[in-house]
Design brief:
Elements lengths: L2 H40 L2 H43 L5 H6 L2 H19 L6 H29 L2 H19 L13 E3 L4 E6 L1 H14 L4 E4 L6 E2 L4 E6 L6 H8 L2 E4 L8 H15 L7 H19 L6 H7 L3 E2 L5 H16 L3 H17 L3 H12 L18 H25 L2 H16 L4
Parallel strand pairs: 3-7
Antiparallel strand pairs: 1-5, 2-4, 2-6, 3-5
Helix pairs in contact: 1-5, 2-4, 2-5, 4-5, 9-10, 9-12, 10-12, 10-13, 12-13, 12-14, 13-14, 13-15, 15-16
């Protein structure tokens, strides 16, 4: 399938989703209007007399509610515009307002509904007053919550970047001719028709579909090409069947349907995303614009809690183990990947802050003590080695910390790590690694005060 067709299908899905949301709102509006027409038919004259006395007061109350909601809405919009302008780019703001039909439809609909409600207060027609009150109830209890949900979804960085990319691709599609494809993907490769983050895999459905393939090809295995949480582009492989096995289009379509691609990552099935969120908060906290190292320290501690838990776990999930028994192999992060994701960026941006470095060393010491085997202990030791802290205990190496007090703070944590590592490797039977870490602990201890 060509990339043009895949992108066209992706666009149609987006348009269909937007149309479904609009259709739901219109359906609810039709329900309100149907209820209004029903009331016109079934209500008798005595009831209309009572409503004639009640509706003006109710209309005035709804006007007050509407004005409050409208002011709140404008406040939300202006805050959103400010955040978009400062956080992302001022060039995004124009489309954020003028290029979005739903925002304009909502605000003008809201103004129109409550303008109508205000106008009918001067007309002594109780039926119009009832219609205006019902429309205002629709605006307050249906349209406004839908707008808030829509705004919260679309102010997200993933939504903004997703929309910009889609508009740019539309311009490319409109203006630039495509070069004819020279090669096609292998027949046993299942490629994505959309782009987005791999949010979930329907393993039960995948197992059922692939079981049908294995009936005819018992030697076949299916390898998932991406980690959960990875970004998948249009035309990128989702899964590969080995050895090469021609697949009917229907089977390929079934396999594609097992992979859920969204514009947002989700923490469901994606442990790395939880780690990523804490890292993002920590990195932003120690940026010059925020300068909040305490928040970063909190993030490091909770990252330590997560990674320490992983240090004593089998990182092959229960579902993955079940699938492997049926010839399906899912990509899952290794312990080293979790360590790198959790601490590399935080150290990169906080390496000149002795509090951050000391906290990282203390957390890594706790993780090391919980490592289930020598391999994972070596990964933690390598993480500290990659910090290049030799300047704290080797005379010919420079140090990132200008004050002796700061250097000694970090040395204390570093010596504790090396001593813990020596004991850990000693218990695990790696005497060479134990001796090396013991030597480093002694070297750090001898360098205090320098």
């Amino acid at each position: 399938m060509s990339d043009d067709l895949r992108r066209s299908q992706s666009k149609r899905r987006t348009v269909r989703a937007d149309r479904d949301h609009a259709g739901l709102l219109v359906s609810v509006l039709i329900g309100f209007l149907a209820l209004y027409l029903l009331l016109l038919v079934v209500l008798g004259r005595p009831t209309w007399k009572v409503l004639e006395q009640m509706l003006p007061s109710l209309g005035i109350a709804m006007i007050g509610v509407g004005i409050t909601v409208l002011v709140t809405t404008f406040s939300f919009v202006f805050v959103a515009l400010s955040l978009v302008s400062v956080q992302f780019s001022p060039r995004v703001v124009r489309h954020f307002w003028h290029g979005d039909k739903f925002r304009r439809v909502f605000l003008w609909s809201f103004i129109g509904i409550f303008g109508f409600l205000f106008a009918v207060q001067f007309v002594g027609v109780v039926q119009l007053q009832l219609l205006a009150v019902m429309l205002s109830a629709y605006g307050v209890f249906v349209l406004f919550p839908a707008f808030l949900s829509y705004l919260a979804d679309n102010i997200n960085a993933a939504s903004i970047t997703h929309n910009i990319a889609n508009r740019t691709l539309e311009e490319i599609e409109r203006d630039l001719p495509r070069i004819e494809e020279v090669t096609a993907p292998p027949p046993s490769t299942v490629c994505s028709e959309t782009s987005g983050f791999l949010a979930a895999i329907d393993t039960d459905r995948l197992l059922a579909v692939f079981s049908n393939v294995r009936r005819d090809h018992p030697e076949a295995v299916l390898c998932v090409s991406n980690y959960l949480g990875s970004f998948v582009e249009v035309g990128s492989p989702l899964a590969v069947i080995e050895p090469e096995t021609p697949l009917p289009a229907a089977i390929k379509s079934e396999i594609k349907g097992c992979f859920a691609l969204h514009k947002f990552r989700s923490i469901d099935q994606d442990i790395e995303y939880g780690v990523r969120q804490l890292v993002d908060i920590g990195v932003k906290a120690i940026s010059p614009a925020v300068n909040d190292p305490t928040t970063c320290v909190n993030c490091i501690h909770y990252l330590g809690v997560i990674i320490k838990e992983l240090a004593g776990r089998d990182l092959r999930s229960r579902k993955s183990a079940t699938l492997e028994g049926h010839g399906i192999f899912v990509k899952e992060p290794s312990f080293e990947q979790y360590i790198d994701d959790a601490f590399d960026q935080l150290y990169q941006f906080g390496r000149r802050d002795h509090v951050i470095v000391r906290t990282l060393l203390n957390v890594l010491t706790e993780i090391l003590s919980a490592a289930a085997d020598a391999g994972r202990a070596a990964v933690v030791a390598k993480e500290v080695g990659d910090m290049e802290l030799q300047g704290l205990y080797e005379a010919d190496q420079g140090s990132a910390f200008p004050l002796v007090e700061y250097r000694d703070f970090v040395r204390k944590a570093l010596r504790r790590f090396y001593a813990t590592a020596a004991d850990k490797f000693d218990r695990l039977g790696d005497q060479d690694a134990a001796a090396e870490h013991r030597r480093r602990a002694e070297a750090v201890g001898a360098s205090f005060g320098t």
